[in-house]
Amino acid sequence: MKYIKLLSVFLLISLVGCEDKLDILPDGSRLTEDQVKNVISKDATKLQSEINGLYSFMKAYPATGTVGQTDFGVASIAWRTEHNGPDLVSPVTGYNWYSGDLTFQGHNFTYTYPRQLWLQFYTQIATANSIIAKIDRATDDPTSKSYLGQALAIRAYDYFNLAQLFQFTYINNKNNPCVPLITEETELEDIVNNPRATVEEVYTLIMQDLDDAITYLTGSDIPPRPNESAVNLAVAYGIRARVNLVMQNWSDAASDAENALTLSGEAPMSMDAVSRPAFYDATVPGVLWGLIITAEDDATQSWLGNYTGHCVNLSFGVGGYCTVVGTWKKVSKLLYDTIPATDVRKGWCLDNNYESPNMQYHYDNGDANELLGPTYDPAVDGPAWYYLNMPTFTSVKFGVGESIINTDNSNDWILMRASEMELIKAEAKAMGGNLGGGQSDLETWVNTYRDPDFISEATTAEELQDEIWLQRRMEFWGEGITWYDHMRLEKDIVRYEERNGQIITNFGANAIFNIPADAPYRIWPIPQNEIQANDGISDADNNNMGTLPQSLPVPGGKKSMKEAFKNVNGIEFNKRSTIGFKKAY
Amino acid sequence: MKKISVLIMFLAFLGFQMVQAQTRQITGTVTNSEDGTTLPGVQIIVVSTTIGTITDLDGNYSLTVPETARTLRFSFVGMKTVDVALVGQAIIDVVMESDLLALDEVIVVSYGTATRESFTGAATVVDSETLGKRQVSNVTQALTGISSGVQVSSNTGQPGTSANIRIRGVGSFSASSNPLYIVDGIPFDEVMNSINPNDIENVTILKDAASAALYGARGANGVILITTKKGTKGKLDVNLDVRTGINQRAVPEYDIMTDPAMYYEKYYEGIYNDQYIPGTTTPQEAHEASLALLFGAEGLAYNIYDVPAGGDLIGTDGKINPNASLGRIWANDYWLTNDNWYDELFGKSTTRNEYNLSLAAGGEKQTTFLSVNYLNDQGIISNSGLRRITTRLKTDYDVKKWLQVGMNLGYTNVENKYPQNQEGLSSKNLFWVSRIVAPIYPLYVRGADKQILKDDLGITLYDYGTNEYPGLIRPVMSIANPASDLDLDMQRYDRDFYTMKGFANFFIIDGLKLALNVAYDADISRYTSKSNAYYGQIAEAGGRLTLTDRKRGALTLQQLLTYVKSFGNNNFDLLLGHETFDRQWREMSGFKQNFYDPDSEELSNAILNQTTSSLSDGYFVEGYIARLQYNYNEKYFLSGSFRRDASSRFAPENRWGNFWSVGGSWLLNKEPFLQNVGFIDFLKLKASYGAQGNDSFNNYHPYADQFEVKNSNDDFALEFVYKGNRDITWETSYNLNAGLEFTIINGLFDGSFDFFNRKVVDMLYNIPVPPSAGYDSYPDNLGSMQNTGVEFNLVTNIIRSNNLNWSVFLNGTHYKNEILELPEQWSDPDGYIDGRRIRKIGGSLYDFWYPVYAGVNPETGASQWRITNEDDTYGVTEDYAEASEKKNSASPGTSLPDIQGGFGTTFDAFGFDLSLSCTYALGGLTYDYAYQQLMHAGEAGEAGSNWHKDILNSWTPDNTNTDVPKVDYGSVDQNASSDRFLTKSDYLSFNNVTLGYTLPESILARINIGYLRVYMAADNVLLLSRRKGLDPRQNFNGTTGFIYSPIRTMSIGAKVKF
């Protein structure tokens, strides 16, 4: 009897399954799709979180999992383009994560750099597509319309970036292959066999999305954006102004820029505002769109994987990577020389004496003293910024919050400013036939905001366009805008000039070369993993990078800057105490 | 202490013979237990003396023994030795039993035990004696080279880490290929160093389906069964094992430059090659420019030579100024010179100490095993090491004739200092940085008096390369000094591990047994990661701390019913069972910076940047088990098993899977036609086939799309992070095994030979998708792959006699990995490129894919790679991107060796024992990434990076016949990845040498010690590979990294039994 009981117990235990125990869901920051749906069914406002995901990915770290410490989103890509160009100088060393951009070595389809560009924008496109697919295009709901408008505008922004990075500019390349198109309607089976669309097809989608975005975002019932990270109607117009400028739809470009300015109510940043290190706050007047980066953001928390650490010369706190390892970002001497002494932007980098009027702000607020400590004596040690190892022409355009000794690197990344819209308006007017209007817009803007003595000497629209091009290079240095101007205007990249048999440049070893407007490596190759998984694109369909440029030898042999300074001034440099260093670093 | 003095005294008197007073005569006959025949030639000795004789042709003997003699020992090759106590007998007849093999040896198998004779599968048993020789802190490390079909790799030498084990090759593309571990019958998914290797009675490695199929969903990669020791009824043993030793770095450094002059000259040569452009610059201009660059911010920065005024360090001939002297005063207050980083960091030895005390006892109704172990392994670098205390109590009690109950309780306390980043390209990786820093840089900061500086707190000042020497920024690894970071930072796991198992066995009727098992493993740990507040990258922030508290627990419930019954010669053994495995984990993590007390390791001591996070998740498996074993007359054996399993990793409709096996074996030596073949002692043929599952995917919910919640400007942001696939389910492995086991020539040779085919279908696969989809991959069951191979184990007992034993073992495995089926889009014969691998049907998972190096252009010194022309002829290019195109690259082979295995020997003579064990591999390729790094072309980005001395053979106008491209400061891609850096992965590793001496019992008996052995042991003695410094044992796929070197441990020890 006992045995039978025992056996029954055994059978009972065995046969009563534990099916419910097999349903396990994670709890934490990660959620499955069902959990997300469940949340939204309980609280519809949580839908906003997916829209926010559009913008958070633009500043995520790591965003694409490809390029280590510089995987901090669109700001990193902006700096890649800056390093490709003629105006930003930094050393080619193992410590400079942008060395491969200075030399164009990164333009190899098996390397990670092209993968970063590709994944950054296509991941955003996937998020946008997911939102677009969820909302009925016929909706009347203002919130839904706002979501739809934002997703469409971001998708256009992404394709616009891709189109300009992976093919030459629109005007002369309409029928050339660009990038594969993926919309909310593209199934996976199409993605794996998806040839490159033509430039024309890509721009058609971009324009269509922007037109739709503007429609959806127009209306008094559309809720205002929660903060400057989000696209609103003004920003949508601003993006379309950029696209129209590239497509040379001059009048549309001018009216879009005008609309962006009017709708945003923003005026360019004032002369006063830019007379000290700035551009770290997307909420200040003059900014239409910018990614707000807080102390909680992953990029900030990562200490080094952020734009401030890698790109901003005035970050002397923890994680001030570029200041510590000396990968200073400098202004090209050729560009610097063209900036008039009366222009406020002359102070955006250190001069030959390691000084900049803009740095007075940091002397005045005590930053410099705190940084350098009591052992520092300007009479013996030279200018503070020299003492901190900064070379001449080091950019001091970008500030880091209120103080250069910061404990985090939570600086915003500005995506669109009123000044850009003003300059688009001026250029588009002139190129559209109204030279006088454009010229007057330009002069007004420069005189009011940057250089009271500026006078335009252009006699043709093209000359004015070149003047504006130069203004844009001065104004948007380091903001990820001017590379696209060189592509759009088909300008040579000029890193050195030969004057009287002398090579004039402050580019260093391996980076001294000029790049003709049609050099094949000015665009990027499609990454290998796309070609491998996409039957529609083969090795043969890829952009050919041609032969990479060869650098000239460093003219006259560059001396170490300490040595150079010693020779010029005859000052013995001083020992810096270990404590002083620790503090400084 | 007293006992030890006595012991030493006896040792001193060793060799003195006792004077014999009185003697007596003993006679007798020795017979064989099997057939009753008499045994000639049996050796008989009086224990502890040299008195002895052998039996005559009729098995008779006669021996005169002293009255003081206590024991007579009978020994004969192939027979178990018999000891007979002398209590005044005049006639002693002895029956000897065969010990050719312990054929009746019980081995632990899935959900039970089997004899070697009856077992139909393929398994290897490793006993405690073999394990005990290895000085490992983690039992998995001791399994290397021990069994055929088992590959072991280790990609870090950090004390206590687990080795990676592959049984019969890698079993999956994207799911885990790790075997399932079972400890005392219970699935074990925790940190393996929780188990004290000394507590282990044996390890059984189950390799085929018949052995492992009962583990169903998780058995596909093989199963490793660990059985802990238990007490024996009617016996009491107290064991003490003490050993103490030193640790050293086992794998030497590559042949890197150590002479600063050599480095300066070579790097100068690279700059000069860039600066000298005939027609543009003159040699003098180039020389001057090169010197300026050499010490500029984009050059080497540091000049550690004192050069007489007016001279340059390097002359126009490219050589160091003969008047320069090494070391110089810098900035008045410093002495600037280089250090030999390797000698400073690895020149010293650290210690490893281990103490083990155990008690094995048993009464009439119960047995008990109790152990305590203390281990302190300091690793080989600062703040690295394992300190562990374990204790175990295992007991069973026969309550009634029909009821046995028992418990197995273990507790482990671990403090594992585990410095982070010792594996990759991190400025904190001591093993990498010490290799890559050119021999011109100081490790320390020295004052003008040449002494290493210390700060007020007594902390040694290291050169972080960031103005410690004012004005000097080291171009390589600045803001870093891993030696200093290691001294001051701390990364540590503090773990409490509890394992509890209770069981009850009900013997219901004869042959029918019900076993109920309940087991719970709990791993409660804290991970502390402290970045110091004194020096380095985080000092400015006042230090920072990350704490992660984790709890992992696994509850296993088993109900097993077995029935054993015989009908005549028909013997049946049936098992039915049910098992659930419920594993849950949760963790909480906090982060803060800026400490009040810089030495605090608690978050509340700090004030800034607080972050907290937590998560929880789980995993559940449920299975129903059935197995039937049958044999006829213990000659023909058949077995069949079935398991139905469900795993929480899959969606409900895809959750259940069926797994099964069949197997059979035939003992040929029991057949009449082999009875008269004298040299065959044992011969078994066996075969098995079955299907097993693998669910161990790298995601616990792969059936669902997944999102990550983030804070974006204090609002929720949802980012898509994982593309799921609802259809995903098990991958299934079909495992065929056929083989034979034999013992021949009176036990002279003992071995086995197996053929296996392991075919995996419905493979869990992260299918790559075009990244334009916005994600890289999604999981699916696609593709198929097989491992086909042969393996053998051979032991020869060359000498077996009373005082002399010598045996040699050798095992080897050869297998081929073949991809049988790929997702449709990659089915084209060219395959698809997956990073540095090519995947194609008919190829192997381990096939490399690289541009093909075509040597150096003898005219220019530039690297060339092969290209394939339109007409399929080959050409060369200097454009690396072109060489990277699919049509131009190639697969030069696979990382899988042709043969791999282990061998070793044991030799015992007159109380001394010597053993040696080795592993080897022949015929594979490995990518020597470290060597590639050390062969850089002197590019600007490599300023300050050290070179392998092979760079001295680089192209120059005078040395054009070389395959090393010229060094060139301005070059691009000269040193890019290609098959140039693939090296044969052949290696021979001497894993362990042990020399011991066991004291004679006669001496020990007087001091009441049952057994005493003293020994010396060395682990990781020597590695021979194709290039000094290269360790091909790091990864199965032939990649190498910059790892924490394996540790050589040399110890002395003593083992005592009371």
Brief sketch in words of this structure:
With 585 residues, chain A is mainly alpha-helical.
Describe it:
The complex is a heterodimer of chains A (585) and B (1058). Chain A has 585 residues and is mainly alpha-helical. Helices cover 45% and strands 4% of the residues of chain A. In chain A, the strands form 3 sheets. A two-stranded antiparallel ribbon of chain A has the order 2-4. Chain A has a two-stranded antiparallel ribbon with strand order 3-5. In chain A, strands 6-7 form a two-stranded antiparallel sheet. In chain A, a hairpin with a 2-residue loop joins strand 6 (497-499) and strand 7. In chain A, helix 6 (112-134) runs antiparallel to helix 7 (142-166), helix 7 (142-166) packs antiparallel against helix 9 and helix 9 runs antiparallel to helix 10. The longest helix of chain A has 25 residues, at 142-166. Chain A is globular and about 105 Å long. The N and C termini of chain A lie far apart (82 Å). Chain B is mostly beta strands and 1058 residues long. Helices cover 9% and strands 46% of the residues of chain B. Chain B has 12 helices and 53 strands. In chain B, the strands form 13 sheets. Chain B has a 22-stranded antiparallel beta barrel. In chain B, a hairpin with a 3-residue loop joins strand 22 (350-362) and strand 23 (366-377). In chain B, helix 4 (260-275) crosses helix 5 (283-294). Chain B is globular, with a radius of gyration of 33 Å. Residues 1-21 of chain B have low confidence and may be disordered. At the A-B interface, helix 1, strand 1, helix 2, helix 3 and helix 6 of A face helix 5, strand 26, strand 28, strand 29 and strand 30 of B.
Task: Report the sheet-strand fraction of chain A.
Answer: under 5%
Q: Give the distance, in angstroms, between the N- and C-terminal Cα atoms of chain B.
A: 15 Å
Helical stretch tally of chain B: 12
Computed Rg of chain B? 33 Å
* Low-confidence regions of chain B: 1-21
Q: What is the largest interface, and how many residues per chain?
A: A-B, 129 and 126 residues
* Principal-axes shape call of chain A: globular
Rg calc of chain A: 27 Å
Low-confidence stretches of chain A: 558-585
